[in-house]
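Table S4 entry, Phospholipid-transporting ATPase.
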Amino acid sequence: MARTGRRKRDRLRWSKLYTFSCLRPSVQLETSDTGTASLGGPGFSRVVHCNQPRLHYKKPLKYPTNYISTTKYNIITFLPKAIFEQFRRVANLYFLMAAILSLTPVAPFSAVSMIAPLAFVVGLSMAKEALEDWRRFIQDMKVNSRKVSVHKSEGLFGYKPWQKLRVGDVVKVEKDQFFPADLLLLSSSYEDGICYVETMNLDGETNLKVKRSLEVTLPLDEDEVFKEFRGIIRCEDPNPSLYTFVGNLEYERQVYAIDPTQILLRDSKLRNTQYIYGVVIFTGHDTKVMQNSTDSPSKRSRIERQMDKIIYILFSVLVLISLISSIGFAVNIKYYMHNWWFLQPDDKDNKLYNPKTPAISGLIHLITALILYGYLIPISLYVSIEVVKVVQAMFINQDLQMYDEEAGIPAQARTSNLNEELGQVHTILSDKTGTLTCNQMDFLKCSIAGVSYGVGSSEVEMAAAKHMASHSDLGTSEIEIEPSTPITPVFERVRKSTIKGFSFEDDRLMNGNWTQEPNSGTILMFFRILALCHTAIPELNEETGGFNYEAESPDEGAFLVAAREFGFEFCKRTQSSVFVRERYSPSEGPIEREFKVLNLLEFNSKRKRMSVIVRDESGQILLLCKGADSIIFERLSKNGRTYEVDTTRHLSEYGEAGLRTLALSYRVLEESEYLAWNAEFVKAKTSIGADREAQLERVAELMEKDLILVGATAVEDKLQRGVPQCIDRLAQAGLKIWVLTGDKMETAINIGYACSLLRQGMKQISLSTAPSDPTQQDAKKMFLLTEQAAKENLSLQISNALQMVKLERDPHAAFALIIDGKALTHALHDDLKNRFLELAVECASVICCRVSPKQKALVTRLVKEGVGKTTLAIGDGANDVGMIQEADIGVGISGVEGMQAVMASDFSISQFRFLERLLVVHGHWCYKRIAQMICYFFYKNIAFGLTIFYFEAYAAFSGQSVYDDWYMLLFNVVLTSLPVISLGAFEQDVSSDVCLQFPALYQQGPKNLFFDWYRILGWMGNGLYSSLVLYFLSISIFSSESAFRSDGQTADMAAVGTAMFTCIIWAVNIQIALTMSHFTWIQHLCVWGSIASWYLFLLAYGTASPLISGNAFQILVESLGPAAIYWISTLLIAVVCNLPYLVHISYQRACNPLDHHVIQEIKYYKKDLEDHDMWKRERSKARQKTKIGFTARVEAKIRHLKGRLHKKIPSITIQTVS
C-alpha cells in the first residue's frame, strides 16, 4: 500500500511538459545499423549482461570491482616507494654512502654513529608519509562502505557496500543518495522515467539535470519484476568524457540506442525523485569520475629542490678537499714517513702507512676524509627541518583566525612538506561553485516598467562603497554619483531580511503597496511570470505550514520565494495546471488561481531562455518568457520596447553591482494562432530523425517573438563570506587568479563580476568554437563541419587577441580571457597551448567555463610547467581533485560537496577567505623562516667543517681531528640545534596584522629574495670567512711558541681545540641572534641557553673520569678558565667573525632597505601611531599594481568619475561627510 501511495504522488509525466531535455532516443535500431556495427570494435568493446553479475567474474568479461583507492601506497608498494621518495633527497644518498663507508676499518667514527641517525631521519619521514596515507585510506573506506540497495535474486533487494557492487548488478537508489557507479537508468518514481540529478561533484554545476529512461524499460518499476529481467548492453570502453556516451541495449530481441540522457554517473546525486532503478555499467576506477582523477603525486617544495643543488655544491667541495687531503696524505707518506720513526706502525705490511705504495695509502685515506669532513653536509639539517615544519603545521592548525566557528572546522596542514611553498605562490587556480560561492541565490533588486526597485546593496556595492568612502585620492570620504547608482555608504546598514533567498528591501512593492504604483498592471504581470515560468515542485513544510520548492536551479528557487513574499505563492502543480495563491493586500485573504500549462519550452545553455504557455481563468492564452537580456531584447515587438532604454540602464547597473540578471517578457496569443503553432510543435516533437531537435528549436523560435518587455530581475549569487576582500588582498599581493568551473559561461562571468575579477570597462576576450549568437544556425553548421576548422579558427582568435593585447597603449587597460570547454580542448593541444598560455598570462584574469575535471588538471599542468612558477589549486568537490593533485600546492575546502577534495589536498580550510591568511601570513612567515634557517645551517656547518680541514693540513693530513669526538657529536645535536629550530619556528619579520596591511611583502617569496643564489652564496662566503678567522686567529693566539697562562704554560691540542670550539659556539650563536627580527623568551633561552649549555657540558665532561674525558679532564676549571686570554680571544674572534655581517645589514638598512626593514623602523619608532598619514601612504605603496579586485575596480571608477567631472565642471567642491 505504501508503494502504491508513493506512485500515486509521483504521477507527473514530465515528458508532456519538457520540450528539449526529454527527447526520446531514436527508434529501435536494426542490427545492421551502422551504430551497432561500430560497437564491438576498438574503443567500443564493453559487454554488460544485465542482472547477471556472475558472468563478469571471469575473463574476457572480468571488470574491476567497485572498490576505489586514492592512496599513494599500499601494503606491497609502501616500502619500495617510500624508500625511493626518501633517497630522492641528495643528502640522504650521501649519508647512505657514508654509512656504508663507516663499516670499513679506516672510518674515523663508529658505524653505529653514522647508521643510527640516517635510520632515524628516514624512518621518521616514512612514518609521517604512512600516517598521511593512512588518513586517505580511512576516507576511501568510508566511501567504499556506503550501502546501496541491490537486487539479489527472485525479485528481492538487499543492502550491499559499494565496494561489493559488480558490473551487471541492478540497484535501487533513493532520493538524496549518491549513485555508487555509472548506471543505465531503467525507471524512476515518475511514470515516464524522469529523474533529476545533481552533478555538482562532477562539473560544479548546481542546476539539476533531467535524465530519462528508455521507454521500453518503463515497466521495470517494481522490485518483483526484476526476477526475470535480462538484457545485454554493448557500449564504449571506460573513458573520461563526462558528457558523451555511445551504446545499445539489447532487450526483448530488439536493439535500442543509449545516449547520455540515460546515464547516471558515480558521485552525482539523485534529487527531487523518490527512487530510481538502474543497472551497473562501469565500476570502480572504470567510472567516468575516477577516469578523470589522477594518481596522488609526490610533491617537493622549490626550496627543497634548490637545496639539492646546494648539496651538490657542498658535496663537490667535500670531494675536492677530501682529494686534497688524500693527495697530501700520500705525499707525506711517500716523502716524510721514513723520518717519522715515532709514528711507525707495528704492522710492517700496513698498506695505509707504506711509503712504497703512497697511491693506495691516499686512496684509503680518501674514505677517512669523506667521513671526517661530512660535517659540511649535516644530517641534522633534515631532522631540524622536519621538526620546524611540524611546528609550523601546528601553528597553522591552531590559528584561531582560520577557525570556522559556524562549522567548527579549523584549518589543517595535511602535509608539512610544503609549508614554505605557501609563501612562493604565483598563480591561484580556483573552482567556483562551493569555493567562491555559497550556491545560494538572493533576490535583491528588480526593474519593472522602467522603474528600479530594491534599496538593498549587493556585497560588491557595499565593499566598493567602503573603498570609495576611505579613498584619499579625491580627498573625500564620500563621492557623489548620479541617483541611479546608489553607492552611498550603505555598508553601515544591516540587512533586515532573514528569509533565505530573499534580501529585497523596498516598501513600494511590499505588503501590497505595489497596487498604488502607476504601472500596477505591469507589476502584476511581473509577479505572475515569477510564479508561473519555472519547472519547480512545491513541497509542504509541515513545521512552518509554508512551501519548500524543489527547483532545477537556485535562481528558480529565489524567484519563487520572491513571488511568495510579494503575495503570489506557488502552491500546487498537477499534470496540466499550476496553482498560485494571489494576495493583493495584507488585509485581504489569498485568492487561489489556476493556470493551465499548455507547453513548456525549458531553459538550456544554447537557448538562454525559458518560456511557458498558459491559459488563465478567463481563457486568455499567454506566453511568459524569461532569459538573458540580449536574447529577449532581440525578440521584442515594436510596441513591446516601451521600457527598453530604462531597463537596459538598470541591467547595466545591476551587472556592475555583481548581480545575475534576467529579462522578463510576455505575449498574448490568439486561440487560432496558438492552435496552428501547437500543431506544428506536436509534429516536430513526434518527428523521427537526427534533425528533430533543430525542428523543435525552429518551431520555438516562431512562438518566442513579438514579446512585450515587463522588466528584469537581479539576484545575488551569494559569495562565501569575505571572498571579494580576499581576492582583492591576494591581487594586491601580486597573485594571478584563474577560475576553472564546470558552469556555463554566463554564470561564470556573473561570478567574475561579483568577485571583481571582471569589471565594467574591462576588455573581454572570449574564445569559443561556436558563434556566440545561437540564432546563426547556418553559420554554426558550417563552422562545426570539421574539428580542424574549429582548431584553425581558434588559432586565429588567439593570434588576433594577442595582437590586440600587445598593441594596447593605455596603461590602465585590462583584459579578461574567457574560454569554454570545447575551445579549451583545442587550446590544450601541443601546437596551440604555448600561444594560449602566452595570451592568458597577458590577461588580468582568466575564466575557463564548462571544463571537465580532466581539463582542470591539464590547465593546471600547463600553467605549472609553462610559467615555471608555483601554482596553487583550490576546490571543494570531487571534480577538483585532479587539479588539486596536479598543482604544486592543493588546498581543499571542507564544504558541502563531500571530503574528496580535502582528502586529496595538502592543506584544508573551511572557507575561501582563509586562503588570504594561509598565504599572506603563514606562507610569508614559513618561506622566510625555512629560507633563513637553511642558509644559516649551511653557514654554521661550513664555518665549523672547514676548520677541521685546515687543521688536517696543519697536521700533515693525518686524519687527526682538533676537536674531541664529543664536541663534534654535540655541535649539531645540542649546542646549535635549538637556536636554529627557534628561528625556523618563531621568526617574524613583521606581525600578522602588518602582513595583511602590507600585502606586497608577500612578493618576497615568489621573487625568492631570501633563497636565491646571491643570498645562498653570500651565506656560504660568510661561513668561509668565519672559518678562516676562527682557525687562524685561534692558532695564532694559542700558538705553541707562546704561553697562554700566567704560569708560562703553552696550549696543547686539547686546549687549542676547546678554545677554538668555544669561539665557534659564540660566533654562530651571535650570528643567529643578529639574523632574528623577533625575540621572545623562547629565542633568548635557545640562543643564550645554548652558549651556557656548552660551559655546563665542559664542566660536567671535565669532572668525569679521564677514562671518559681523556685530554679534556678538568680543562675548563684548571686549564682554560684561569687564562684571561681564553675569554678575551673568545670575545675578539666572535666579534671579528660577525663584523662583516653587521656592517652589511647596517648599510642595507640605511641605504638600500627592503620593504620589511622600512616597516620595522616605522613600528619600532611607533610612527604608525603618531603619523597616520605617513602610515596610510606607506600602506598604499605596499600594493602590487593589479587590474583585478575591489581596489582596482574602485580606482577605475574614480578615474571614470574624475574624467566626467573635469569635462562637466572646471572646478568643484566636494564636501566631506562626517
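The mean pLDDT is 81.
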